[in-house]
Amino acid sequence: MKFRRARTLVGYWSEGEFVLEDYLTAKSSDNDEDNATVVDAATMNLLNLFDEWTDVETVLADLPGYDPESVRAAVTALAEAGLLRSPEQAEREDTLISEWAAWSEEARFFHFGTKDAAYIGDDEEHRAAAAAVALAAGPPPPIFKSYPDAPLVRLPRAFLPLRRDFDEVLLARRTHREFTSEPVTLRELATVLHYAFAPMYFVDAREYGTLLMRTSPGGGARHELEPYIGVLDVEGVAPGLYHYNAELHALELIDPAFDRAAVDRLAFGQRMAVDAGFVVFLTAMIKRTTYKYKHPRTLRMIMLDAGHLAQTFDLVTTAVGLGPFQTAAFRDSEVETALGVDGIGETALYLLGAGRPAGPTDGHPIDMPVASTPYPG
């Protein structure tokens, strides 16, 4: 029988040993078994000989100094571990490589490596065990971030009424790419930040302390996402880069020199970001989530949370008469430098923004014709 080295292997050091993980191999959702196999230099050399479809006898010819039976046994063990594929096993792998080719190894490893995670029960026994593990690492991380030495701009709490019919707001929501020169009002900014990012309620999470509740869902109420506001044209607020202190409903000044030129650089020149009244950089405070959730699948949850929060932001901005936008295209590391975060414990995740829309606000496509002909096929 011919074998080929699996095309879905990722290698790394783990606890002093080098391991290979086949991320395409299905994991049981009922347990959390390790999917990695420890390998040594001889094993790596053997796998290298199976770069293309090869039988054991051909490989033996390339290994004259090895005992044939030990090589055959090693090949069998590697096949059982999923590091070598038979032709029958390779069909799914070939389909993956073909259909996901544009996204390279990183995307494939993240998606398939975090599939079929074991579920930890939410009964009292499992909850207590998980809480004990968390508390052993120290107290819960703070639910608010603040810059106590930064100049503070307290925002008004005279929020604009959100009285538009909900269906009207849903239908009117569109991504706006062009804005007028009319500034965003202070009450509009305050209303958007409050309803999108501030706590609405607080809950007693027992061992995990007090947690906040936003208008958007957040996995386990961890609410790891932190907003930073780039003020470009807002009445009553000097341009600059601020952190939104959700506890105080205030802006904490980080960089007074932040301007449209900075946005132009950070957002790759996207006009909607450069011309907006304000932009919002969302970061993820990793410790807030990893304190409770230890499985790498949790990173999926953080990204989903960002989507929830962005949709709420879009709906609130639409409700107050502004035009929202959102983009994942920005210079990650430069954004993190501008924010003064390390990109590890706190990492940039999303770019939102809003301004006074220049185009229609009735929900019809802004810069594309309405479809009026049957879709071909």
UniProtKB/TrEMBL annotation:
Protein name: SagB/ThcOx family dehydrogenase
PANTHER family the UniProt entry points to: NITROREDUCTASE MJ1384-RELATED (PTHR43745)
InterPro entries named among the record's database cross-references: Bacteriocin_Proc_Enz, Nitroreductase, Nitroreductase-like, SagB-type_dehydrogenase
One Gene Ontology MF term: oxidoreductase activity
Gene3D superfamilies: NADH Oxidase
NCBIfam families xrefs: antibiot_sagB
SUPFAM superfamilies for this protein: FMN-dependent nitroreductase-like
CDD domains the UniProt entry points to: McbC_SagB-like_oxidoreductase (cd02142)
Domain of life according to the entry: Bacteria
Organism of this sequence: Amycolatopsis suaedae
Ranges where the Nitroreductase domain occurs: 172-355
